[in-house]
């Protein structure tokens, strides 16, 4: 009986009043009221109440078990969906054991470590699942926008023979008897792909930082949204492009994730123009307004937060570009400008760095000299450096940390909350 | 003069007859004919011929240098584009040194190792660049199709505490003093994300196999297109979904990559239904028709090729699903069926396995027993196994090897040709 019935999703039931349907999902709630029981089933689209009468009343099942209910869809004003199921049969598909914490209340009452230890369960809570639906939209929008501009999606290796940032903080592995590293960024490779004639490329992939930080801002493995493009006229172009990309990403979230944003009570900011400050200007503001002396030419995390507050107060923007970092605080491939500065920028979002970017050196001799000045052995970077002998156009790019962007947009206290299975100095599981 | 002129791409020049434009790209060819020189500039959209007269004639530049030409677009019947540039100025933006091989002939005459050693150069050849444009479309179409069905894109860690296939062939790394591994597949994590209530998920990411093969079919790092979904009614559903996904991917390539397909002289097959054979049926065919005795219940690579030929001859299909592998040849999470077989399948494309898939075990006790039968210590897989205590629905999935799919579609002899920077037992650079 009913064996040929296909599954109907909770949300689709509203269109099937009067029909017999099969619903499958997780048991969110069970209530028994004398001769009648109510069972709320949750699936990926929402939840539906099943009414159990007669023989079915008093049906015993643990919440979070997987269940199937077959019944007639009827209209009701008792549920927010506007329909419920008059059940004809109920069947436990897979039973649940005792839960370490409750996931069916309005809020999950468990600490972050507990939530992360039991990720499969914590994700059953719709507020937590919402984070990952929004993260997926951000990434999709990033690629959609760039593909629309003719950028090509590239795939570059994460097992590499040299770190792109000069060798510190890399994870080491044994590659068939040779020493190899996990890529800290696709920096060299994305530049090489620009030079290969693809010109405008992007990559979405994991990057690895063996940093011993244990802060709310750091992950040792995270998703980097990388962009690199050739034939740029200046590094300002890169900031313009990033502004447009972020604008599109936020608009897509507003459009696709209405439910999730409502649940999380998040208003997505409208990005117009993003204010810019040079590092020098930022230091002056910190000195004059906040009496803070920063080490010349860089902002620490306290400085970043103060500048973010200043920009928010004076312009209303959650974002600010900090530009023209001095050479000593940027990697060897950064294009210098005048007075020991570089054509580089960071983007702060609510006081957190979510992007580094800039123009790169495209001439062989200048690049080789820059490696030497940083005390790096050119021979170790031969494959990358040789690229620059074969005609590389002026180019630059940037990278957005996806988890940081998600966390800041959603007001999460810790970037780990935006990673399904975060890796940090203490955490290698689940 | 002209400093405010924005760059015009080669292909866009056809719409700008009579206008003065700035073109930037790589020098493909230079010819001098007395008082006139011809310079062909290639950019990411195509190529345009620049006519150099008067003072500009005789302009000396190495091919593959980066160049800028400003001039008037005029109609001509001398070029396939239908226009050329009457140059007013030419400027070398970055010069090229001597090339290790020629990239501007109809074919690149260099061996695979040489091409891979100089990837930036070999990609300058439009036939080679075409491979990566098509690969990008395949991946984009994969995600587009699944997103359309409501699947959520997930990101799972590649640094893991256990290999998903039972521990062999994994790369080992030092993770802050602990032993860790590079993920062979996102298998455990994608199942966990189904169980988390997201139900239908996909992932696009690198996977790592420390296999010492050195064949035309193997890469040690490759891109896996992973799918996993809950509440399936049988493993046949998975093969249907994969058929639809592949159909969409191939249609998108036909639509978006006309130029590239023309260049490579590839006709994309129309996928209708994909034939299915059980492993047992395949073995019988090998025995009767080809006098080959295979070890019971699995096909080796010779067997896969013969079966592919047989299916091509008898049905015209380049694809064939091989189903119901015996338990001993499948991983511990595979759902058993009767007679020691499993609800599993492989997909062969032109005789090469491009997919493994199947239904997974969703009940804790059955799964724990399966681990034990395979001689695996349950305690080492605690995080994964515990998931199954909390109500996991029937589910299954599959994974497509992106480089293998690309290579077979484009008739490439070696899967390394479909990887920009392949990693194999000998190759860790560039």
TrEMBL record, chains A, B:
**Known catalytic reactions:** tRNA(Asp) + L-aspartate + ATP = L-aspartyl-tRNA(Asp) + AMP + diphosphate
CDD domains under this entry? AsxRS_core
Q: Name one GO molecular function term.
A: transferase activity
A Pfam match is tRNA-synt_2
Segments forming domain Aminoacyl-transfer RNA synthetases class-II family profile:
132-430
Instruction: List positions binding ATP.
Output: 209-211, 217-219, 353, 401-404
Keyword GTP-binding applies: no
Record-level GO cellular component terms:
aminoacyl-tRNA synthetase multienzyme complex; cytosol
Query: Which keywords are on file for this protein?
Result: Aminoacyl-tRNA synthetase, ATP-binding, Cytoplasm, Ligase, Nucleotide-binding, Protein biosynthesis
The kind of enzyme this is, by top-level EC class, is ligase
- Which InterPro entries does the UniProt record give? Aa-tRNA-synt_II, aa-tRNA-synth_II, aa-tRNA-synth_II/BPL/LPL, Asp-tRNA_synthase_2, Asp/Asn-tRNA-synth_IIb, NA-bd_OB-fold, NA-bd_OB_tRNA
Instruction: Quote the record's binding site residues for L-aspartate.
Output: 165, 209, 356, 360
Has the keyword Aminoacyl-tRNA synthetase been applied to this entry? yes
| GO-annotated biological processes | aspartyl-tRNA aminoacylation
Query: Region (Aspartate) spans which residues?
Result: 187-190
* Entry's localization field: Cytoplasm
Q: What is its EC number?
A: 6.1.1.12
Q: In which broad location class does this protein mainly occur, judging by the first location in its UniProt entry? A: cytoplasm
Give the family this protein belongs to, as stated in its UniProt record.
Answer: Belongs to the class-II aminoacyl-tRNA synthetase family. Type 2 subfamily.
Q: Share what the entry says about its subunit structure, partners included.
A: Homodimer.
Q: What does this protein do?
A: Catalyzes the attachment of L-aspartate to tRNA(Asp) in a two-step reaction: L-aspartate is first activated by ATP to form Asp-AMP and then transferred to the acceptor end of tRNA(Asp).
What is the name attached to this protein's record?
Answer: Aspartate--tRNA ligase
């Amino acid at each position: 009986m009913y064996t040929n019935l296909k599954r109907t999703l909770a949300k689709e039931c509203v269109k099937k009043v009067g029909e017999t349907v099969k619903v499958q999902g997780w048991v969110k709630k069970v209530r028994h009221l004398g001769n009648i029981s109510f069972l709320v089933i949750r699936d990926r689209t929402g939840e539906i109440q099943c009414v159990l009468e007669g023989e079915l009343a008093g049906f015993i099942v643990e919440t979070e078990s997987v269940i199937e209910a077959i019944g007639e869809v009827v209209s009701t004003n008792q549920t927010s969906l506007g329909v419920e199921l008059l059940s004809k049969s109920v069947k436990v598909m897979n039973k649940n054991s005792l839960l370490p914490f409750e996931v069916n209340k309005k809020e999950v009452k468990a600490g972050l470590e507990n939530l992360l230890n039991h990720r499969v369960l914590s994700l059953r809570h719709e507020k937590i699942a919402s984070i990952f639906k929004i993260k997926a939209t951000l990434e999709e929008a990033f690629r959609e926008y760039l593909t629309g501009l003719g950028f090509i999606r590239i795939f570059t290796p994460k097992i590499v023979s040299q770190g792109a940032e000069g060798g510190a903080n890399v994870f080491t592995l044994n590659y068939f008897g040779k020493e190899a590293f996990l890529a800290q960024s696709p920096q060299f490779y994305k530049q090489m792909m620009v030079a290969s004639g693809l010109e405008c490329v992007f990559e979405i992939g994991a990057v690895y930082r063996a940093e011993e930080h244990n802060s709310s801002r750091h992950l040792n493995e995270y998703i980097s949204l990388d962009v690199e493009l050739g034939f740029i006229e200046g590094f300002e172009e890169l900031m313009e492009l990033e502004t447009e990309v972020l604008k599109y990403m936020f608009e897509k979230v507003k459009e696709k994730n209405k439910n999730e944003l409502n649940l999380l009570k998040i208003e997505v900011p409208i990005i117009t123009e993003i204010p810019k400050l040079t590092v020098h200007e930022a230091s002056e503001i910190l000195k004059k307004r906040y009496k803070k002396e920063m080490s010349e030419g860089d902002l620490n995390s306290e400085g970043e937060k103060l500048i973010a507050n200043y920009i928010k107060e004076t312009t209303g923007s959650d974002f600010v570009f900090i530009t023209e970092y001095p050479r000593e605080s940027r990697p060897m491939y950064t294009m210098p400008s005048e007075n020991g500065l570089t054509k580089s920028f960071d983007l702060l979002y609510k006081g957190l760095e979510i992007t580094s970017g800039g123009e790169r050196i495209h001439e062989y001799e200048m690049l080789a000299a820059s490696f030497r000045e940083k005390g790096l052995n050119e021979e170790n970077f031969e494959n990358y450096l040789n690229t620059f002998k074969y005609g590389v156009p002026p180019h630059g790019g940037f990278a957005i940390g996806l988890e940081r962007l998600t966390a800041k947009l959603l007001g999460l206290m810790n970037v780990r909350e935006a990673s399904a299975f975060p890796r940090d100095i203490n955490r290698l599981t689940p």
